[in-house]
Specification:
Blueprint lengths: L1 E8 L2 E6 L9 E2 L2 E2 L20 E6 L4 E4 L4 E6 L4 E7 L19 H17 L4 H18 L6
Antiparallel strand pairs: 1-6, 1-8, 2-5, 2-7, 3-4
Length: 151
């Protein structure tokens, strides 16, 4: 969901990454495997340096709008209080009814990811050469549908 972060007291650094950089963030579910964005392990995560980093410091009284799908990392620079306000902007049936805080993927995205896992499981039934060939075809099909390739 979209998020408005209000810094009430103290100071906080916020680092953000656009959803267009998802391929460089080493995603595992909805989180990045790169935990230390200041000193990433580039042997393990070499493409992380390709992600465009946006950074700001929040002072008391500052508000930061964090759009849905933007990855963010926060670091308290001094003790403080921050308040997040989330809201839904997709049609109500897009959200999991058992997820009042909007932490889960939209329902359609969950179904798509589950279908992908089933497809990958099916490919595992093939010999390696066939599995790799059909996996490449799947990747090309997904890339041809990706919005980021339209620019």
């Amino acid at each position: 969901m979209d998020n408005l972060l209000a810094q009430v007291t103290g100071r906080k650094r916020v680092v953000l990454y656009s959803p267009q950089d998802a391929l460089h963030l080493y995603l595992s579910g909805d989180k990045s495997e790169v935990l230390d964005v200041d000193s990433p392990d580039l042997e393990r995560y070499p493409n992380f340096v390709k992600a465009c980093r946006y950074e700001c410091i929040l002072e008391p009284g500052d508000l930061l709008f964090i759009p849905a799908l933007w990855f963010h990392n926060t670091l308290a620079l001094q003790f403080g209080i921050g308040v997040n306000v989330f809201w839904r902007h997709l049609p109500l049936d897009s959200y999991d009814k058992k997820d009042p805080y909007g932490n889960k993927d939209p329902v359609a995205a969950t179904r798509a990811l589950q279908a992908l896992e089933r497809a990958l499981g099916a490919l595992d039934e093939l010999p390696a050469e066939y599995r790799d060939f059909y996996a490449c075809r799947m990747v090309l099909r997904i890339q041809s549908r990706a919005y980021s390739n339209e620019t």
